[in-house]
Amino acid sequence: MTVTVPPTPVLILGARSDIALAAAHRFAQAGHPLHLVARHPERLETDRTDLQLRHDVPVTLHNLDLLDTAAHGPFLDSLPTLPGVTICAVGLMGEQAENEADPTRAAEILRSNFEAPALLLGAIANRYEAAGKGTIVGISSVAGERGRATNYIYGSAKAGFTAFLSGLRNRLAKKGVHVVTVLPGFVATRMTAGMDLPAKLTAQPAELGEAIFRAVDRRRNVIYVRPIWQLVMAIIRNIPEPVFKRLKL
């Protein structure tokens, strides 16, 4: 199928992540100008130069701490144009043992994966609705499909984010605005470095970049980057609770 995504500007939140940069390269390859957003955006200078030289597209860097929710509105007002596509790659996993023992750390995980991204995407969605067009891509996680002892704080935040994206998609379905939920499964990134991940279940960042690009073009609603995850999670969701409590998942 021929990809026909118009070369509208793309806003990428959490742009320092491996997944975000892979998506940036894929959209830049198709001619999309980029707005890369992160804390400490100066650390993206090398990536900006690479994207501009390699793909011949304009790339701007923007500073935003998503946890500073009061800054969301002024940040959006500061953008040179309303981007046609917004990709949210913001996330923070942490360690479950630390998260469950430290309420401050747990709050940071919950806010980083759910509250802050949802509030910013909600503000962007309102602007898209007023314009009658736009696409939002939220990168959530299969960890949100069932609470597991080994990552339930991170997983519960992602569950909330997945539900938020679903509701937003339903609300805007007839408003010219599309919302895509991405459920990557395992990805070989800096965040998972050192983990013993099964090869058949582990995607590469470039694989996600391509999947996100195609999902925007084809107006997909929910995508599992590797289809096998749909089967894996269907099994996990349907394990009876008495059995599930005895498993080490």
Describe the SSE topology.
Blueprint: E1 10-13, H1 18-29, E2 34-38, H2 45-55, E3 59-63, H3 72-78, E4 85-88, H4 96-101, H5 103-131, E5 134-139, H6 152-172, E6 177-183, E7 186-187, E8 202-203, H7 205-217, E9 222-224, H8 228-237, H9 241-244
Parallel strand pairs: 1-2, 1-4, 2-3, 4-5, 5-6, 6-9, 7-8
Helix pairs in contact: 1-2, 1-7, 5-6
| The CATH homologous superfamily | NAD(P)-binding Rossmann-like Domain
Helical fraction equals 40-55%
Could you give the count of β-strands?
A: 9
Q: Count the DSSP helices.
A: 9
Largest sheet: 7 strands, parallel
The stretches of 5 or more residues where confidence is low (pLDDT under 50) are none
What CATH architecture would you give?
3-Layer(aba) Sandwich
Q: Distance N terminus to C terminus?
A: 38 Å
Percentage beta strand: 15-25%
Q: At the first level of CATH, what is the class?
A: Alpha Beta
Taking Cα atoms only, what radius of gyration do you get, to the nearest Å? Answer: 18 Å
Described by the principal axes of the CA atoms, the overall outline is globular
Using the coordinates shown, work out and report the CATH topology: Rossmann fold
Strand order of the largest sheet: 3-2-1-4-5-6-9
The chain-level mean pLDDT equals: 91
Secondary-structure element order, N to C:
EHEHEHEHHEHEEEHEHH
- Helix/strand-derived class? alpha/beta
Structurally, how many domains make up the residues? 1
